[in-house]
Specification:
alpha/beta; 2 domains; Aspartate Aminotransferase, domain 2; globular; Aspartate Aminotransferase, domain 1; 15% strand; 366 residues
Length: 366
């Protein structure tokens, strides 16, 4: 099997499986209990928070959630009640993941003024986000790495410039696709959404980083766990797995660059294959096999046990519209393939993929 759909989800590291199962078997206490089992469970939570903060390279707090969707909803929907002095303006992009785009749509329906900056004119894109900020801007929410194209925003630059324009503006970053894969120096925000299963951790666990001066209303109330910001008994086993995934993720910068270059070179030998990515996050490459619909090519490759995607897994095969925002025509978007790599990806995997694409072209292109 050749798995190249790692932007959708990832195969857990063996060390992660061991961490999860080990805690389920031997450290199953409730972190709120006062006895030794509870204290041991609470230690796992504290250690995991330190692991995430150390990887982020930021001084702040970690809130564990069920995943990045809950993290982003908490960050975005929890703000208005606590930061009214910041105005009612929101600046975001036209290519956000639905976990960000949908909450912002709700805020817009509630009367917030939303500016969505298109990536068309990529050379000055970050500056156009910054220029959209004014004295009435409550929030800027941007995606560090686009999950369909690999397009990268230097969020550290955006954060610093936004704070110069309006110190009260809050910056949220969806860092799901960049965390552990790109240098942390590019990441800076007041609120950061993270997910474990994108970095070979377990599903069902995510985190929201928040700076120490941040305030937001909880989405989930009840027993008051995690400083009353997210009630519910903490899943110690999943949290241990999340921390282990962060510890175990290797530096693949050079590897991804080499594999990406190899795939681009091999695709360049084929007729009418167009690259839709912009060369930022090297673990993601989006391209169109003109004349062959994505779904047909995807299932042809699946017959060879090669697994790729036609776009965001959350769109369930439907055209998301993200590629159109990057200037890709509807026709080319209908034939787009997304390849997303992992530390397990090899050169032979890339060779097999290119061979499969070539054979698919021979079979299906008319």
């Amino acid at each position: 099997m050749i798995y190249l759909d790692n932007s959708a989800t990832t195969r857990p590291f063996d060390s992660v499986i061991a961490a999860v199962s080990g805690n389920m078997a031997g450290n199953f206490g409730n972190a709120s209990s006062l006895h030794k089992m509870g204290i041991n469970a609470e230690k796992v939570l504290k250690d995991a928070k330190n692991v995430l903060l150390d990887k982020l390279g930021l001084d702040g707090e970690i809130l564990f959630t069920s995943g990045a969707t809950e993290s982003s909803c908490t960050a975005l929907l929890g703000l208005p009640g606590t930061h009214r002095h910041g105005g009612n303006g929101i600046v975001t992009t036209t290519f956000e993941h639905p976990s960000v785009a949908k909450p912002i749509e709700r805020l817009e329906n509630d009367g917030y003024n939303v500016v969505r900056v298109s990536p068309k004119g990529i050379a000055d894109y970050e500056q156009r986000i910054i220029d959209a900020v004014n004295e009435k801007t409550l929030l800027v929410s941007v995606m560090w790495v686009n999950n369909e194209t690999g397009f990268v925003i230097d969020t550290a630059r955006v954060y610093k410039a936004v704070k110069r324009e309006n110190p009260h503006t809050i910056v949220h970053v969806d860092a799901v696709q960049g965390f552990c894969k790109l240098p942390a120096k590019q990441l800076k925000a007041d609120l950061i959404s993270l997910s474990a299963h994108k970095i070979h951790g377990p599903k069902g666990i995510g985190a929201l980083y928040y700076s120490k001066n941040m305030r937001f209303d909880p989405l989930i109330i009840g027993g008051g766990q995690q400083k009353d910001l997210r009630s519910g008994t903490e899943p110690v086993d999943l949290i241990a797995g999340f921390a282990e995934a962060v510890r175990s993720y290797p530096d693949c910068t050079e590897k991804y660059a080499a594999l990406n270059d190899k795939l681009v070179s091999l695709l360049g030998e084929l007729d009418d294959v167009v690259i839709n990515s912009y060369g930022n996050a090297k673990n993601i490459l989006n391209f169109s096999v003109c004349g062959v619909r994505s779904e047909i090519m995807l299932h042809f490759l699946e017959e060879r046990e090669i697994y790729v995607s036609s776009g965001s897994a959350c769109s369930k095969g439907k055209t998301s519209g993200v590629l159109g925002e990057f200037g890709v025509s509807d026709k080319d978007a209908d034939s787009a393939i997304r390849v997303s790599m992992s530390p397990f990806t090899t050169e032979s995997d890339i060779d097999a993929l290119a061979e499969g694409i070539a054979d698919g072209i021979k079979r299906f292109r008319r």
